[in-house]
């Protein structure tokens, strides 16, 4: 089990102040890593960072970062290196899937916004971080994808297309940045994060009967995959799309 130890590592998690990102941040800190919590709302990042310090004793840096803004990627990485001197693990977790009334009602602005956050931003951050990791001896990049990328539905069209692109760049970057930098994706199913509180609970429970697990996932249940891919236990795993979806059809 020593292969899963992250002591001495520095991990940056986008969208790290809530949901799956927050769970991954906690898991990494508990495994010994120092963490960088990045999202658009600095106050949320600061709160999460304080909780991590209190519960794990690890260093935690809160950063305001809008994934969809191309020019913010380099300054964000500069801030990480100024604080810690290195970056070993990047988790591109931040994402968005806004609702729309019909396919013809999807505006260019909505389309661009979804692609900026789910594809363009993660690509830019991974490209810059991966190059720095390679120059510093290596590292691990983990992209949080979605089952929508493989089983798209009418209500997730722009999001599904962006996440399918994220799958593609995961494989391409693994070849581009290898052999010292590993790049993988977690293809996540339906998790019961704070967003799920707005769902029709009965309707979802009925839908979940079609899952092998018969339920949605708890945020902490993504942490095993995230810890594996970040750690030396996954030293020969790169360019992979790891599905964590409770057997979702």
From TrEMBL:
SUPFAM superfamilies: NAD(P)-binding Rossmann-fold domains. Pfam families: adh_short_C2. The keyword Oxidoreductase applies. The keyword DNA repair does not apply. Keywords: Oxidoreductase. Belongs to the short-chain dehydrogenases/reductases (SDR) family. PANTHER family: OXIDOREDUCTASE, SHORT-CHAIN DEHYDROGENASE/REDUCTASE FAMILY (AFU_ORTHOLOGUE AFUA_5G02870) (PTHR43639), SHORT-CHAIN DEHYDROGENASE_REDUCTASE FAMILY PROTEIN (PTHR43639:SF1). This is SDR family oxidoreductase.
